[in-house]
C-alpha cells in the first residue's frame, strides 16, 4: 500500500470512528464537550488521576484542564480527595453520577466498535489491533526523546 493510500485510510477510519461516537453521544443525550468526556474517561481509568496527569495524558495546558475539571466537579461528575503522598495535589474520582455517565459512554463506544467491525472475519480485529499498536508504538516518544 502506498503512503498516500495508508494516510487516506487512517484519516477515513479516524473520521468514521469520531463520527459514530458523536452520533452515539448525541443519541444518548450526553451534553458534554468532547474535552470533558475525555477528561472524565481519563479520571475513570486512572486511580492516581490528578489535574497534572490528566493534562499530560490529554496533551493540553494545565490551566485549560483545570477549568474542565472545575466544570465536571460543578456538574457533580467528579470529586476530589486529598492525595496521600502529595499535599499539593488532589486525586480525582468519578462521582456516582460520573460513573453512570461513563457507563453510557462505554455503551456508545461499544456500539461504534460493533458497527465498524461487523464485517470483519474472526481474527481480523485482533490482527488489526496488533498492527495498529505496532504502528502507534513506533511513533510514541520513549524516555529521553
UniProtKB/TrEMBL annotation:
Keywords: DNA-binding, Transcription, Transcription regulation
GO molecular function terms listed in the Swiss-Prot or TrEMBL record: DNA binding; DNA-binding transcription factor activity
SMART domains found in the cross-reference section: HTH_MARR (SM00347)
InterPro entries according to UniProt: HTH_MarR-typ (IPR000835), MarR/SlyA-like (IPR039422), Tscrpt_reg_MarR-type_CS (IPR023187), WH-like_DNA-bd_sf (IPR036388), WH_DNA-bd_sf (IPR036390)
Signal peptide start-end: none
GO biological process: response to stress
Domain HTH marR-type: 3-137
Pfam families xref list: MarR
Name by which UniProt lists this protein: MarR family transcriptional regulator
Native source organism of the sequence: Parahaliea aestuarii
Amino acid at each position: 500500500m502506498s503512503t498516500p493510500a495508508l494516510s487516506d485510510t487512517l484519516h477515513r477510519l479516524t473520521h468514521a470512528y469520531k463520527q459514530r461516537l458523536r452520533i452515539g453521544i448525541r443519541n444518548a443525550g450526553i451534553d458534554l464537550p468532547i474535552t470533558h468526556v475525555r477528561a472524565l474517561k481519563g479520571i475513570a481509568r486512572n486511580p492516581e488521576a490528578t489535574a497534572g496527569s490528566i493534562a499530560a495524558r490529554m496533551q493540553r495546558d494545565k490551566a485549560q484542564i483545570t477549568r474542565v475539571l472545575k466544570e465536571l466537579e460543578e456538574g457533580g461528575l467528579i470529586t476530589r480527595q486529598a492525595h496521600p503522598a502529595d499535599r499539593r495535589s488532589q486525586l480525582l474520582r468519578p462521582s456516582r453520577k460520573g460513573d453512570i455517565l461513563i457507563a453510557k459512554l462505554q455503551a456508545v463506544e461499544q456500539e461504534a466498535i460493533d458497527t465498524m467491525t461487523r464485517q470483519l472475519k474472526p481474527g481480523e480485529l485482533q490482527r488489526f489491533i496488533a498492527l495498529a499498536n505496532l504502528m502507534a508504538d513506533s511513533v510514541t516518544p520513549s524516555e529521553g526523546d
